Amino acid sequence: MSSIDVDRLQTEWLSDCVEQFRCIGPACEESCCGNWQITLDEPTLVVLRGLHDPAVEDALATHVRQFPVDGAGVQRTRTQIGWIELNQDGSCPFLNTEQWCSLQANHGESAMPLGCRVYPRVHHRIDGRMHSALSLSCPEAARQVLATGATPDGKSGASEGYPESADVLAKTAARLPLTATRTQIFWPLLRVHQALVRDRSQTMAARMLCLGQLAQMLDAQPDGNAAAALRGFCLKVVERAGRNQTLCGIDAEEVAAEPLEFLLAAMDSALGFAGSNQRFRALTAKVLRGLQYQPGCDLRSVCQRIRTDKLEPVLAAHPHWMENLLCNELLRRLYPLDLANEDGSDGSKKKNTAMDAFARLSLEWAWVRLYLIGFSGDSSLELMQAADCVQSVTRAVFSRTNEFGRLCQAWREQMLRVPLVRLLSL
Fold it and tell me: Of 31, 44, 102, 347, whose Cβ has the fewest other Cβ atoms within 10 Å?
């Protein structure tokens, strides 16, 4: 990927998160060492077979399953030749009695499958330099990302060090070339998105609306000239800021019915495909209890009251929670390129639009917001509880490529029928 702007975003805080992350092993509330597919790569399999460890050889013989060479589904590659079949209790056969990886403990990190060595880190090499984020399906990673930016008293000190969004957008517009694709101006795009997410003069709903408007402008450029679309957007926002108007000219004050109806149906679907994930099921039950949910109830008014009276005061003291979540996702998925969503619903490859990427990002945001609202209605909300909501939903729902992809497509279709200001009213 090339970038015509050599300036780098303020991604150092994410690099710090990645560097500081340490697995907490047996203390983890939802270990990655079980209850989902552990992929095996060919180099690791070669290493494991060369250890001449009877325990390892026995596990390889009874628990390793290889993908068929020409089979449907997962494409077999050197980094994905098969998977480790779990024990009946859902745990990895290489997990020892102390709940640590026996491969790492007995033979070092090089004996672990590639995915286990890397997770929850996500690395991208951009312009010859490695940039990293974290998968929030890991409890400790979710806490690490959400907590970053807090002062010793737990409050946010985060607007310090982040320039005003209007200044960022004005400088970005001045430096853009006449023509360029989204890939070519990835860094300017990401800089603008981060600046908008960090702009605390606007509600979070208004910031999300701005991101949606930018996605629409990128897709509306007939020749795919992302530079022209980004320049036009930046100048438009700078002009509005000069007149002391909101970023996007629209603000969401009331909770609308459409996102609640969609999310309730999506939650029901997720409870089905999440299967035996008891952590997610318990969290969802708590959220519904906090929302005082009953069939036929006026969920909209309850949701709006809890949001105003309970959630917003907490987020006002900890604005970095949702900002950090979004900024981590922007870099983790190379937004708005959205490489994680490149398969069509029929299994074919499709060219993603910026609005496809925004649909995924905004659905994640709306889902987390609803869970935070529901949790606030049932219990006090602190960092640990906010991270629990983010992590559990990420692992049970957002990380499931096929199932969540279908929900994203349905959300995208909803965007064609319902104004964004209503869908993003949470």
Answer: 347
